[in-house]
Amino acid sequence: MSDNLLLQKLNRENGLINILLTNDDGIYAPGLAAMEHALRRLGNVYVVAPSREQSGVSHSITFLTPLTVKNVFVEDKHWGWSVDGSPADCVKLGVAEILPELPDLIISGINGGLNAGINVLYSGTVAAAIEGAFYGITSFAVSLEYNENESFSIAADIAVNVIENVLQRIKQDKKNKCTLKNCSNKLSSENIKMSGDLYNLNIPFSALSNPKPEVRIVDMDVMPDWELFERRIDPMGRPYYWLSGRNDPRQPTKKKSEQLTDIIALSQGFITLSPLNFNLTDKIKLKNMESWQSVTWDLSAQKNPDNTTRSNAPSIRTTAGVKSRENPKNKNQKSQ
């Protein structure tokens, strides 16, 4: 029996769980190492992570090129698998090929930087957790506010405490729905595996020095960010753009009448936990559109004013650049 299978058997006997751990910062990121160490107390940790940073790739997957996998060793001991792909690729490959069986829990992180508000939609960290939920496996995305003095080890301990509390509540909820005879008192895979719950956990930097950090269960903030792009000119005279930051005209406020969202709660120093759902259907609009089913849809070919059918596709051509809207920062800019 291999060491992994033996450990797996022992974990089952002790009521521990198997955990797939990934991230979007890459397999050598300090947040991943801290999380792996902290998660050991919950069970057996399998690390399957991207070979390089994949921040902002969202839920992209690789299907036009092959995925290469390499074993990663730390101090001559096997530590994990490096995948030349996205975070979602890592979860797919980990679940389908690398792990000996379906994991009981999937964790993505710790990301170096918050994933709150609409950034959830861009995040590779969150996408990996969503991929886990696709398989019906309880999954968490974990992120820490960026700071030059960030301590991932403290953040990892906080995150595992929160995760353990959530899993215990899942177990309790399941226990309330069954008889005492059929329920286990242990935190076992049977209690959490196929729930498919999806959570986004964000930790502000200030929580690391707080002896009693508080958690808030909050909604995802959906107010838009206003991206700022810096326009530059390359040596060939062609324009290019760097995403240089955000300028949000809606600063988070502390008014008690406002709904507490992840962005606002984080600005107040709270750890935030948001339950997510990958079903993007607008259920209210879907209900309102039910009456449309009886409508006769006119899908005939579109006509020109002279009553002839439009059939020719427009021609497409490429130019050297685009004309930017007037921006004082772009004036008198030198080649860089």
Write a structural description.
This protein has helices spanning 3-13, 30-39, 87-98, 124-134, 152-176, 189-192, 262-267, 283-288; strands at residues 17-22, 43-50, 69-74, 77-83, 105-112, 139-144, 198-203, 215-217, 227-233, 239-246, 271-275. 25% of the residues lie in helices and 21% in strands. Strands 3-4-2-1-5-6-7-11-8 form a nine-stranded mixed β-sheet. The protein has a two-stranded antiparallel ribbon with strand order 9-10. α2 (30-39) links the parallel β1 (17-22) and β2 (43-50). It is globular, with a radius of gyration of 24 Å. It is of the alpha/beta class. The protein has a single domain, classed as Survival protein SurE-like phosphatase/nucleotidase (Stationary-phase Survival Protein Sure Homolog, Chain: A), CATH 3.40.1210.10.
Distance, first to last CA? 60 Å
Look up the CATH topology. Stationary-phase Survival Protein Sure Homolog, Chain: A
Beta-strand percentage? 15-25%
Number of domains: 1
Q: Can you tell me the residue ranges where pLDDT is under 50 for at least 5 consecutive residues?
A: 253-257, 328-336
Gyration radius over CA: 24 Å
State the total count of DSSP E strands.
11
Order of helices and strands: HEHEEEHEHEHHEEEEHEH
Largest sheet: 9 strands, mixed
Secondary-structure-derived class = alpha/beta
